[in-house]
# Entry
Amino acid sequence: MRIHPVVLVFARLVGVARARYMVGGLLWSLFFVIPILTGLILKGLFDQISGQRAATLDATLWLCAAFVAVEMLRGLTFFLALSVWPYWWHSAETTLRTNALRSILTARGPAATRLPHSSGEAVSRFRDDVFDVVRMVDSGVDLVGAVAFGVVAFVIMSSIDPVVTLVLVVPLTIVLLLTRLMSSVIRRIHGRARRLGAAVTAYIGELFGGVLAIKTAGAEAAVLERLRTHNARRRQAAVKDRLTMDLLDTATSATVELSIGLVLLLAAPAMRRGDFTVGDLALFTSYVGWLTMLPRVIGRMLYRVPQSAVAIERMTRLMASYETADDLSRHTKLWLTEQPPPALEAIPPRSDRLQVLEVDGLTAGYDGMSGVSSQATGTSDPAGSRAAARNPDSRGRGVRNVSLRVPRGSFTIITGAVGSGKTTLVRAVLGLLPATSGVVRWNGQPIADPGTFLVPNRAAYVGQVPRLFSETLRENLLLGWPVDDEALAHALRLAALDRDLDEMPFGLDTVVGPRGVRLSGGQVQRATAARALARQPDLLVVDDLSSALDVETEELLWDRIAEASRSGHGPSTLLVVSHRRAALRRADQIVVLDRGEVVGVGSLDELLRTCPEMRRLWADESIGEAQPQPT
# Structure
């Protein structure tokens, strides 16, 4: 039997911090139920004062003292509930966010196929959708307390006057029917509000990332106009979402107030007959205020269920295709009051050292990859990526039926014109993009999921677009990897970053700023190379490292890596995307791509004799190297 996702997530989150949830839930329920005693005390007190019951001063004073004690108990219960509840709330939020992030980083299959168009939209889901789900589970406690109070209150009031009590059932029935009828409307409106809110967050994130491009293009007015458009759409959707919720709350309040009026009308003749005392009226009046909570809590719970269904669906879209709400809400170890252990204390031992990497009939591209962001794919032009995916004749669409063999100790270069599929190929080999056909083998064994297999220290990847965080240079190089100072210094030397480091006033403790803005383009690229080299991989995959390096620095880098490889103190096998002569001359084999297909494989001399595309690329590069190099 298949369990509904909302029910499954509800049950799982209750058990995240079960003791805290139960204790906190009991305290909140007591907070709702304690007014039962308040009403009974008021009934006895007003009956004595009005002469309905034999009154004595001592009895009256004791009832007053009991009233004060009950109210103090309710205040204490409220304080204890507030002190216990946040631990469960944060545990539930952290569980959902941890499981979604774990799937993005470690689940089988390329994450690029399920990430939204921008990091801002993903942040919106981690913030708003998680809040919607946890709030729904939190409302379950209010529901239990309100129902417990309502049942006891109805029993007590029915024993006094069944007709008057029956009138109070009317608003509950109306609210339940109204909320049930509007469930699908609520879900649709809330889903649209969340999507448009995420679009605004995503756009603002892109603005901060592209401030320089906006200013140099003189596009400030156009950018602000686009932001106003996004905000207007979000505002309209948010107003509709809020209006729907307020209409339900208003309908609930109106029916409750109507019931209170009916109670007073029915109670007046009963009081004249003597069937309804002043104490009974005091009890009914005190209970009515709390009974208004019952239809409101039920109504809010009913419209928060479809909201949570939308939120769960949006969160699971970030996860692998085979993962469901079960994986989203699965319990995981949490450290909320103590320091967590290091991510990795020691490099795990391996017995499968690389002997040969084989790629057979690999076909991959951006077809059908809706929702792939430019950040996920490593491209700098998301519009171009989407256009390439729509145009079947465009260059850069992908690679088709590519086969290659990379033996241990070799230096293999993939080269080709812009848009020939070089980056797509290496990312597909590493499992960062989905392959529609073909197989990748490690030492002759097929790799079921390259994305989780070709990771440090089997393989390390230096992307075309370097990524640094606004932390120290040391943290950017390590990222939790256990490396001693000697190994880190060796990686910096291989990446030709040691001289630059000597000129930094704080050395490895230099904060590089967002995306490494305080470093030059070449330093950022060499820092990402040092990060990969610090992993001491069997296979080093480099995608166009030379794009921000001058010829001399690149030659120095390749010289040092080659020397380290020969001595056994560097990566044994290299798979490199490059067009530079400094790299091409060192290659044991070169794979030439043209429009996504292999048009030549061999040494440089062989390809210059037999491959027209290689001769054209070599001639173009000779012209480029004749130009003044950037400093």
Observations:
- Strands lie at 356-365, 398-407, 411-416, 435-442, 445-446, 459-462, 539-543, 573-577, 589-594, 597-602.
- The chain has a mean pLDDT of 82.
- The longest strand covers residues 356-365.
- The first helix runs from residue 5 to 14.
